[in-house]
Amino acid sequence: MKIGIACYPTYGGSGVVATELGLALAERGHQIHFLSYEPPLRLPSLPHLNGVTFHEVRVPPYPLFRYPPYALALASKMVEVVQDTGVELLHVHYAIPHAVSAVLAKEMLGGGVKVVTTLHGTDVTLVGQDKSYLAPTRFGIERSDAVTAVSEHLRAQTDGFLCRNCTIHVIPNFIDTSRYNPERCSETRARFAPRGEKVLMHVSNFRPVKRVGDVVRVFAAVQAETPARLLLVGDGPDLPAAEALAEELGVREHVEVLGQQSSVERLLRAADLFLLPSETESFGLAALEAMACGVPPLVSDVGGLPEVVEDGVSGILCPVGDVGAMAARALELMGDRKAHAAMASAARLRAVERFDRSIGVHAYESLYRELLGA
Ligand code: GMT
Questions:
Q1: CB-based contact 146:170 (threshold 8 Å)
Q2: Relative to the CA of 278, which ligand 1 atom is closest?
Q3: Where in the chain is the domain with CATH 3.40.50.2000?
């Protein structure tokens, strides 16, 4: 099959899932065409792969444009790619504005190409609900030939609201469990915890929805009881505030800010616990990455996270904002070597059995075949 994939190229789960899907499909012999304003982050670091092409969407400036119309430039590139390469299906990740661009491209082409929209989270739960975006988001979703959501929770949030009278297929996110695995997560603990401290880790794009302040507060409470280190991976608007809070709570010297990392899997194994206390999370790909590396995640009991993490078995679920409960359960787990090892194995097993890449890729491939009658 010839598939066009549009996504955000920067750090963020939707771009990661889109890229991993495209690469896996190419490995399976499909022709994959990525469309975005720059190459998705995980593309260039990988060896050259047959069947993968990147098409840059250029948004030429013009004095009248205070806000250059990316959605139009993307639609235009989609038309060009379909005409030049014979792409049969456009799979867009994150509805805004990708779904609208794809539907417009299809109209401009007079039909033919199929459109699949995958909903990832804030495209429905936050941005898509803003009055400025709601109507076109709903339009893009409803006019897609197929709509998928990364969790049952996100499906339920969308159904009947941004997608009236349409079927939403749930295809959970997935991970390459051979790459994310305890053996290959090789970064040594000693680098971060030379005195045998407990290591807590948070990976995100540091937006308010991640509640990074809670990460620091939980860590400070843990540190008060046992020597510990906090590794912050990624970057974003709330990182400076997190550092300031660590300073205020007197734990800044125990916090290491590692910034953007291209291979998080190397670092993950150094951690005893992964913290994701988000306000909301449609799935929580970062928690799954930790699980695949055998690192128990401590996450908030919201959104799609309970579909990924089973409380007390493969991780810990706590109410949003309940820093006290989070710290208590973190200390309890890290203080019990046997319970920690059991949870680490259960996390790894769940990642392999329920969320391995092969499962997700097969589900998307079947959906494409159904739409294309292939
Ligand atoms: O919706 C976002 O915040 C952006 C998006 C992204 O690109 O990172 O994250 C969402 O999609 C991920 C991949 O499907 C999910 O793992 C995240 O849970 C989800 N984020 C939220 O729902 C906040």
A1: no
A2: 23
A3: 2-174+356-372, 186-355
Task: Take residue 333 and report the two structure tokens written for it.
Answer: 């787990």
Q: Three-state SS for 258? A: strand
Ligand 1, atom 23, residue with closest C-alpha: 281
Distance of CA 267 to the CA centre of its chain: 17
pLDDT at residue number 277 = 98
Q: pTM, whole model, 2 decimals?
A: 0.94
Second-level CATH architecture of 2-174+356-372: 3-Layer(aba) Sandwich (3.40)
Q: What residues form DSSP beta bridges with 89? A: 3, 114
Which ligand 1 atom is the nearest neighbour of the CA of 283?
Answer: 18
> Angle 98-109/131-142 helices, nearest 10 degrees?
50
Give residue 126's pLDDT. Answer: 84
The binding-site residues of ligand 1, defined as CB within 6 angstroms of any ligand atom, are: 8, 12-15, 17, 94, 120-122, 150, 173, 209, 280-285
Is the separation of the CB atoms in 269 and 348 below 8 Å?
Answer: no
Q: Rounded mean pLDDT of 231-256?
A: 97
- Report the top-level CATH class of 186-355: alpha beta
What's at 336, amino acid-wise?
D
pLDDT of residue 152: 98
Asked if residue 330 has pLDDT above 60, the reply is yes
Residue 200 has a pLDDT of 98
Ramachandran bin of 94, using left for φ above 0, alpha for ψ from -120 to 50, beta for the remaining angles: left
Ligand 1 atom nearest to CA at 279: 23
What value, to the nearest 5°, has the Cα angle with vertex 355 and ends 354 and 360? 115
Helix or strand holding residue 31 (H, E) = strand 31-36
Distances (CA, A) of 200 to 233, 249, 264, 337: 11, 16, 14, 15
Least confident of 1-5, 157-161, 179-183: 179-183
